[in-house]
């Protein structure tokens, strides 16, 4: 009988910033290296300060929202994907979400950093909505980006953060019944 001894080398990729996060998958190793090169990204996805990208954010699937190291790695992958806009099919749509991720990355350490649920109000109903981060200094910029992203078909009469009106705009109120009636009379569709 002949016996052979074989040695298997297992490469483990471990984060220097979050040592509890490790993997033997080379693709995960690349994400871990990226996170270690951008330490603030680890803070964003493991903390709760960022509404769109913190560990309990609705950006993530349910299995990603816990304290497990694999979930933190998965959240980091999602955050990087949004940041780099990978797999974009609709440039204008993803441009806003890529900007949102970049904004969070750039301003996470700023004084007064917080997040909230932004809503577009058309005078009758809440329409466009998104979780966004902001600071007191950058609030005007964030509101302007949000309103531009909401765009048409509904006018923006007000912008709310967490249900409270923070901006109002002078625009005629949108009335779908009146609009429908005027199209009927003119024959327009």
Keywords:
6 strands; 189 residues; alpha+beta; two-stranded antiparallel sheet; 2 domains; 6 helices
Write the layout of secondary structure elements.
Elements: E1 13-14, E2 22-23, H1 26-37, H2 39-46, H3 69-84, H4 91-107, E3 114-121, E4 126-134, H5 139-150, E5 158-161, E6 164-168, H6 176-186
Antiparallel strand pairs: 1-2, 3-4, 3-5, 5-6
Compact description:
With 189 residues, the chain is an alpha+beta fold. It has helices at residues 26-37, 39-46, 69-84, 91-107, 139-150, 176-186, and strands at residues 13-14, 22-23, 114-121, 126-134, 158-161, 164-168. It folds into two domains: 13-92, no CATH class; 111-189, no CATH class.
Note down, in words, how this protein is organized.
The protein has helices spanning 26-37, 39-46, 69-84, 91-107, 139-150, 176-186; strands at residues 13-14, 22-23, 114-121, 126-134, 158-161, 164-168. The model has no long low-confidence stretch (mean pLDDT 88). The protein starts with 12 loop residues before the first strand and ends with a helix. The strands form two sheets. The chain has a four-stranded antiparallel beta sheet. A two-stranded antiparallel sheet has the order 1-2. It has 189 residues and is an alpha+beta fold. It is elongated and about 90 Å long. A hairpin with a 4-residue loop joins strand 3 and strand 4 (126-134). Helix 1 packs across helix 3, helix 2 (39-46) packs across helix 3 and helix 3 crosses helix 4. The protein contains six helices and six strands. The longest helix has 17 residues, at 91-107. The protein folds into two domains: 13-92, no CATH class; 111-189, no CATH class. 24% of the residues are buried.
């Amino acid at each position: 009988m002949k016996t052979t001894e074989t040695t298997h080398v297992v490469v483990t990729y471990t984060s220097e910033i979050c040592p509890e996060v490790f993997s033997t998958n080379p693709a995960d190793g690349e994400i871990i290296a990226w996170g270690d090169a951008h330490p603030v990204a680890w803070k964003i996805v493991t903390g709760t300060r960022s509404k769109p990208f913190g560990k309990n954010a609705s950006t993530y699937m349910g299995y990603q929202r816990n304290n497990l190291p694999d979930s933190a790695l998965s959240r980091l992958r999602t955050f990087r994907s949004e940041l780099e806009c990978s797999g974009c099919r609709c440039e204008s749509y993803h441009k806003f979400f890529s900007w949102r991720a970049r904004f969070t990355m750039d301003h996470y350490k700023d004084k007064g950093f917080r997040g909230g649920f932004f809503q577009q109000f058309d005078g009758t109903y809440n329409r466009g909505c998104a979780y966004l981060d902001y600071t007191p200094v950058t609030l005007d910029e964030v509101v302007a980006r949000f309103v531009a992203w909401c765009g048409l078909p509904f006018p923006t009469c007000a912008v709310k953060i967490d249900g409270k009106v923070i901006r109002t705009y002078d625009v005629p109120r949108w009335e779908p019944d009146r609009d429908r009636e005027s199209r009927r009379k003119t024959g327009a569709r």
